[in-house]
Amino acid sequence: MAEGKIRVVMAIPALENHTKGYLTVSGMLRDAGMEVILLGNELPERVVETALQESADVIGISTYCGSPVVFGEDLLEAAEKKNIREKTIFIIGGIFPPEDVPNLIKMGFAGVFPPGPGSRREDIISCIRNAIASKKPN
Known about the structure:
Number of helices: 5
CATH class: Alpha Beta
CATH topology: Rossmann fold
Strand order of the largest sheet: 2-1-3-4-5
CATH superfamily: Cobalamin-binding domain
Number of strands: 5
Oligomer: single chain
Strand content: 15-25%
Distance between the termini: 12 Å
C-alpha cells in the first residue's frame, strides 16, 4: 500500500457504453481526497497493467451490462499473473443481478455496490479506507 493519497484506477468493461456511475463514483473518491486515474473502456489485462504502472492501491470497475462475474474473474486472473492481486483492493459497482453479489465477494472483491441503500457515498469510501487499513503492515 502506498503512503499518502490512496490511488484508484477506475474502468468500465471494454464494450459497455455508459459513464454516469463511473464518473459519479470517481468524483466522490476525488472529493474524499483520493487520486483517481480514469481509464474509460478497457480490457481486464489493460486495467491491471495500468494499476501496476500507476502503483494503484485500488481498482474500481463500473458495469451496467454483461456479466460482472466473468469480467471480475478475468480481472482477478490478470492481477494474479502480474502479482498484484494480494496487495490491491478490488471494488465493483453497477447494475447486475443480486445473486452476483455473494459470488463477487467470494471471488475477492472488497466492495460490491449494486444500486440501493448499501451503495451510498459513505459506504464506498469507508469500504476502500477500511480495506486499505487492513492491508497495511502492523
